[in-house]
Amino acid sequence: MASVTDTGSEVRAPDHNAPSPPVKPGAAPRAASRRRVRGVPSPLTLRILAVNVLALLLLVGALLYLGRYQDRLVQAELDALETEARIFASALGEGAVQRAADEPELGQESYELSPELGRQMIRRLALATETHTRLYGPDGRMLSDSRVLTGSPGKIEIQELPLPPSGDPASRAVNEFYARFIDVVPSRENLPLYREPPGRAAESAAPPPNVERALAGENSATVWRLASPVARSNLLLTVAVPVQRYKEVLGAVLLSRSGAVIDEAIRSVRTDILRVFAVALLVTVLMSLYLAGTIARPIRKLAQAADRLRTGHGRHTEIPDFTRRGDEIGELSGVLRDMTAALWARMDAIERFAADVAHEIKNPLTSLRSAVETVSRIQDPARRDKLMAIIADDVQRLDRLISDISNASRLDAELSRAALEPVDIGAMLRTLADIHRATAEDEEDEDGTEAAPGVVIEPPRGGSLTVKGLEGRLTQVFQNLIANALSFSPPGGQVRLASRRTPDGAVEVTVSDDGPGIPEGKEEAIFERFYTERPTGEKFGTHSGLGLSISKQIVEAHGGTIRAANRLGRDGETIGAVFIVRLPRP
Description:
- The protein has three domains: 84-155 and 168-259, Beta-Lactamase (2-Layer Sandwich), CATH 3.30.450; 319-409, Orthogonal Bundle (Helix Hairpins), CATH 1.10.287; 417-583, Heat Shock Protein 90 (2-Layer Sandwich).
- It contains 14 helices and 17 strands.
- By secondary structure, it is of the alpha+beta class.
- The two termini are 33 Å apart.
């Protein structure tokens, strides 16, 4: 039993003579060019390395800047140098001062710096601190320089020479690299350039600006940038303090010191930072490679397996299983495996469908061929008319079978393209029942035969019966079920339609009849393609056996279920069949 009557839907056969879309000749080479060359790091690995190392480089670059730290060191050095300059100025104001040759009026005493005493004190004071110290008179002329020794033969000038290269070539290379690196690191501010006048020109040269401010009675400190670094330092710190006696400015003392100590402190900190950076860089690279391996390697394996599956033959290629990872790659692996299994299942279904179609079409073709071959040899008109009737039935059967096969083959594509819309199942069932009643009344008026089975619809329960779906295809499902139930119901019987909204929000529709029921153990088989078990006396070939199969396919495409069972009476005997369709909540 459990087949379906034809619904009269028009099916357009595919045009096999239509030209197929052109295949681009460059498609295959482009696909082949996307394959990664062995031995070359994957782009994903390079990107992970670039992102992680770039963040580390930015952090280390910010640490190597050390601008505020260098400012604190410079300020501390200037404070110490200013304290030292004040001590020198106080000592000179007490020990290197003599009475002026020209006494002022009103009997006031006047003092002036003694160049000779100033030179002696400057040399002794500078020996203890190794600071370049110079003494200037009130007119801005330099009176003494700690690096110029005077004697009977003449003057001896002391100059600080650059340190000779030390260490092995590797150390010198590191120092050279560090020096070049420091030149690239930006400074916090632009320092004024300091140029020392050469030789005797220093005595007659104009005093530095901070000396002029000191002669005006102000302490002055300046940080300079040397044009030619000495002792690997390009910083020079100078402090000028006025030499006073009883608030009278008698001159100025200028102390200058190289920034080698500051540079060495900065170099030490930067060296420690670079050591930490080297370790962090090594750890970052190793962790990046590990991370890239846990991401890129499984993805590459999945891509290679998919490519082998695309280009290979047979089912020996399997998608790697990474579902134990519990992450997105594991989810991707599981989805690809499920997709591959679904594709193979679809291919198996297509193969079975093709085999079933060939088998079902072969039967009427065999009968048609036998009848055509026989009709030409029969002279009896009665027998010839009978064979022609058989030929007409076989042609009609083939037409019906091909229409149903075409409808079933394009059902998946239509369901995947169409947009779901709200469908009122209750209104649909009422419309189908009204159409059947109108059709049955017309047939009874024309034929005058006994009453055909009727369709009774029960009031819906549980509220609105609206679902999301394709109205035309859902109508086809219930048309098939109603027609199937009517074909098995006895004259005067009833086909009952009941619908309700379940507590979980789903819509459940039952179609029951008063027929002989479903053979035991065939509740699932009746939904297979080309399964036909029709009532006794029905004309052979009237149904193709695809109705229930198509109905199940439509219901499952909507996310629902369909099942069949027998209706049992009080004493346990079968009193009919019932089909239950369950559609999910919208």
